Amino acid sequence: MKSSQKVIDYLNFLLGGELGARDQYFIHAQMYAEWSFGKLYDRIYHEMQDETGHAQLLIQRILMLGGKPNMQVSEIHIGSDVPSMLKSDLELEYRVQEHLKEGIALCETERDYVTRDILVRQLEDTEQDHAHWLEKQLRLIDLMGLQNYLQSVTAEVNQQVNTH
Ligand SMILES: [Fe+2]
Ligand SMILES: [Fe+2]
């Protein structure tokens, strides 16, 4: 199936963002594991898998439209402690949210409604799941104080890395 080059180019731009999100969550999950914040590790590792899924769907769609996926990862921002990591992840989700909205508008102009629906589903994950969870964590830190919050997310992490 052919689509407009504009849609393919924009999907490639979005792909860079999803790959960046995946990498940022990957490193943040490892930092949480090192610090024994097991509850944050579990959630953020799961987000990494979600972002990988988003990237996979974009790659599949680009290929289906006859384009060439661009695996260039967009810039990432690694935090240095729990609040800065959560804030950096939330800023990332807000950026992705704005880019997805732009992409949805472009798909409507180009009358590519199937791509539009793929982006709408990613916007739902971004707004209602990823960003909302991060907003709630920052609110909890405000309400209960950092020490209490950190205590509430502490758990040992048992990572099983499969290398073969
Ligand atoms: Fe995503
Ligand atoms: Fe996300």
From TrEMBL:
Domain of life: Bacteria
Cell membrane recorded as keyword: no
GO molecular function: ferric iron binding; ferroxidase activity; heme binding
Residues binding Fe cation 2, per UniProt: E51, E93, E127, H130
Presence of the UniProt keyword Metal-binding in the record: yes
Keyword entries, A-Z: Ion transport, Iron, Iron storage, Iron transport, Metal-binding, Oxidoreductase, Transport
TM stretches of this protein: none
Annotated binding of Fe cation 1, by residue: E18, E51, H54, E127
EC number(s) recorded for this UniProt protein: 1.16.3.1
Group of enzyme by EC: oxidoreductase
A single GO cellular-component term on record: cytosol
InterPro entries, per the entry: Bacterioferritin, Ferritin-like, Ferritin-like_diiron, Ferritin-like_SF, Ferritin_DPS_dom
Catalytic activity field: 4 Fe(2+) + O2 + 4 H(+) = 4 Fe(3+) + 2 H2O; Fe(2+)(in) = Fe(2+)(out)
Domain Ferritin-like diiron residues, every copy: 1-145
Annotated residues for binding of Fe cation 3: H46, D50
One BP annotation, GO: iron ion transport
Function: Iron-storage protein, whose ferroxidase center binds Fe(2+), oxidizes it using dioxygen to Fe(3+), and participates in the subsequent Fe(3+) oxide mineral core formation within the central cavity of the BFR protein shell.
Family that this chain belongs to: Belongs to the bacterioferritin family.
PANTHER family reported in the protein's UniProt record: BACTERIOFERRITIN
Name of the protein: Bacterioferritin
Organism per entry: Moraxella catarrhalis
